């Protein structure tokens, strides 16, 4: 086959056509929100007060709205098989999205309410598609996963956990959107390798819509993802992972965890850290991994830049950490043993770097966790 003809065929593919529509639509809608912020800012602005706030000027925090609208535009341009897969994601993602947007606007929706909304999205996705996790590739546990009730409840908890983890890491310009875009691409790469082209196409379209938001959020932070955006993207990531595992028996369940290793580790470690410090697990603080990276390294290396620039450098620096995870997952996805090894290696690497930032010296991550916790 002529390489030029092959390349032309790739760029004329319906999936790339739909992805381009999603990217452009999301980007333009994000720009529109920024331009019109004086009209909706009274409702949509994220102000600078709060322990986890690093931005220096009030900024609209409804970036999830153009992502969802851009995805709807892309959905209208997709082939029938991809449209059939995207439809449940759009419908089932609405509880997570709407409760998140309600928090973005009113600032009065509790953490537990939002967590339950993301879990409801997982339940709704199962009800629409009849997919739920039937295995986690852990001996003994998989026997319980054969029971529908256990499978569905576990899936709802997993979806809620991933959705909330994306919200937790959403601390700097470009961080969540970079991580999520790369994760969608990682899932798509594995799906393509095992012949699941429909899921690969779906992942690519989702990545394109998130990437459209990225270029308005980064580097100048003109628009924030907000809870609506982070919860919807987190739900979509979790559901693509469920589909990858359930539709493709050759893919280890731990491969999906490897791709999401950063947000998963951040959530688990944050709960552990706050328990050790005898604080409420949901209490905000400035001890997240991304917060420490900015204060310990970015502030030192790039101190001559403005705070806004340092925020963007931190977001991109940590967001692109997911590259290592998706590359490793693409090689080890068929082996549970290798996937488990890679996951724990990356998770322990995270803890080791965290320990270095806290202790100002290198030490064993195991020692840091169990003998010298912070």
Description:
The chain is mainly α and 374 residues long. The chain has one domain (11-370). The chain is 74% helix and 1% strand. The chain is built from 19 helices and two strands. The chain has helices at 3-11, 14-35, 37-44, 64-77, 80-92, 94-106, 111-129, 141-144, 148-169, 175-193, 197-217, 226-247, 253-259, 261-276, 289-301, 307-319, 322-332, 336-359, 365-370, and strands at residues 45-46, 59-60. The chain has a two-stranded antiparallel sheet with strand order 1-2. Helix 5 crosses helix 11, helix 7 crosses helix 9 and helix 11 (197-217) runs antiparallel to helix 12. The longest helix has 24 residues, at 336-359. The relative contact order is 0.13. The model is unreliable at 6-11 and 50-55 (pLDDT under 50).
What attributes characterize this protein structure?
374 residues; mainly alpha; two-stranded antiparallel ribbon; 19 helices; 1% strand; cell membrane; Glycosyl_transferase_4; membrane; metal ion binding
Radius of gyration: 20 Å
User: Widest sheet: strand order?
Assistant: 1-2
Query: What class do helices, strands and sheet pairing give?
Result: mainly alpha
Averaged pLDDT, please? Answer: 90
How many H/I helical runs?
19
Poorly predicted regions are 6-11, 50-55
How many strands, which pairing sense, and closed or not: the largest β-sheet?
2 strands, antiparallel
**Per the principal axes of the C-alpha atoms, what is the gross shape?**
globular
Distance between the termini: 60 Å
Domains, number: 1
Element order: H for helix, E for strand: HHHEEHHHHHHHHHHHHHHHH
For the secondary structure, the number of strands is: 2
Strand content: under 5%
Helical proportion, percent range = over 70%
């Amino acid at each position: 086959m002529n390489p030029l003809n092959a390349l032309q065929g790739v760029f004329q593919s319906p999936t790339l056509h739909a992805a381009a529509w999603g990217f452009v639509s999301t980007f333009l809608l994000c720009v529109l929100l920024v331009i019109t912020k004086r009209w909706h800012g009274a409702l949509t602005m994220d102000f600078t007060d709060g322990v986890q706030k690093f931005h220096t000027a009030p900024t609209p925090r409804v970036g999830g709205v153009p992502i969802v609208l851009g995805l709807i535009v892309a959905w209208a341009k997709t082939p029938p098989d991809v449209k059939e897969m995207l439809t449940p994601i759009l419908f089932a993602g609405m509880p997570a999205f709407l409760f998140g947007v309600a928090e973005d606007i009113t600032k009065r929706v509790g953490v537990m309410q939002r967590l339950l909304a993301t879990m409801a999205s997982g339940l709704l996705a199962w009800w629409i598609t009849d997919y739920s996790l039937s295995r986690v590739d852990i001996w003994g546990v998989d026997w319980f996963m054969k029971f529908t009730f256990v499978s569905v409840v576990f899936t709802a908890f997993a979806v809620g956990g991933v959705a909330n983890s994306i919200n937790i890491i959403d601390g700097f310009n470009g961080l969540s959107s970079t991580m999520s875009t790369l994760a969608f691409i990682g899932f798509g790469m594995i799906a393509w390798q095992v012949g699941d082209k429909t899921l690969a196409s779906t992942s690519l379209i989702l990545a394109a819509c998130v990437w459209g938001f990225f270029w308005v959020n980064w580097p100048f932070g003109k628009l924030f993802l907000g809870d609506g955006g982070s919860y919807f993207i987190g739900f979509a990531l979790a559901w693509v992972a469920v589909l990858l595992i359930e539709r493709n028996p050759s893919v280890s369940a731990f491969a999906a965890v490897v791709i999401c290793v950063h947000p998963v580790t951040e959530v688990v470690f944050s709960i552990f850290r706050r328990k050790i410090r005898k604080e409420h697990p949901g209490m905000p603080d400035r001890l997240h991994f991304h917060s420490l990276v900015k204060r310990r390294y970015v502030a030192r290396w790039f101190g001559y830049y403005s705070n806004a620039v340092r925020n963007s450098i931190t977001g991109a620096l940590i967001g692109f950490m997911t590259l290592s995870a998706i590359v490793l997952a693409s090689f080890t996805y068929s082996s549970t043993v290798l996937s488990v090894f890679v996951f724990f290696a990356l998770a322990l690497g995270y803890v080791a770097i965290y320990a270095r930032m806290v202790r100002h010296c290198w030490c064993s991550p195991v020692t840091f966790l169990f003998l010298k916790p912070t």
